[in-house]
Amino acid sequence: GLLGPGPEGANHGKDLVQRHPAFQRALTGGLVSSLLFDRQGRLWVASKTAASLSILDTTTRAVVQTIALPRASQPHGIAFAPNGSAAYVVLEAAGQLLAFGVQVDRGDGA
After folding, report:
1. Which entry of 16, 29, 31, 73 is 20 to 30 Å from 107 by CA?
2. Are 1 and 13 contacting, i.e. CB atoms less than 8 angstroms apart?
């Protein structure tokens, strides 16, 4: 599945959001519409009502970045390019697809 190996990936993401205060603070006031893990194990969370995309470090339980999206754009659905270099988010209300560059850890220290 998109969230990891099988349906347990989705449950793991939801558990992280529900159990850890840092994750809850990152999503305050927003309806979570999508969760997706990237290749580095970070959890990407789209908040439909807050119109934001948050990236959470699952190891440190810290919010790495929050991206404000256009007001009332209703982000829903997150996908990654096959090589992991880009993330895509659909803005339902705006009828748009946004692309974001993703820093990919090549595993060689560079």
Report:
1. 16
2. no
**pLDDT exceeding 90 applies to what percent of the chain?**
21
92 pLDDT tier (thresholds 50, 70, 90): very high
Q: Given phi > 0 = left and psi -120 to 50 = alpha, else beta, which region is 98?
A: beta
- C-alpha–C-alpha distance, residues 41 and 9, integer Å: 11
Q: Cα–Cα distance between 3 and 89 in angstroms, integer? A: 15
Helix (H) or strand (E) holding 33: strand 32-37
User: In whole angstroms, how far apart are CA 18 and each of 11, 82, 88?
Assistant: 10, 29, 24
Measured distance CA(52)–CA(73) in Å, rounded: 9
SS3 at position 79? strand
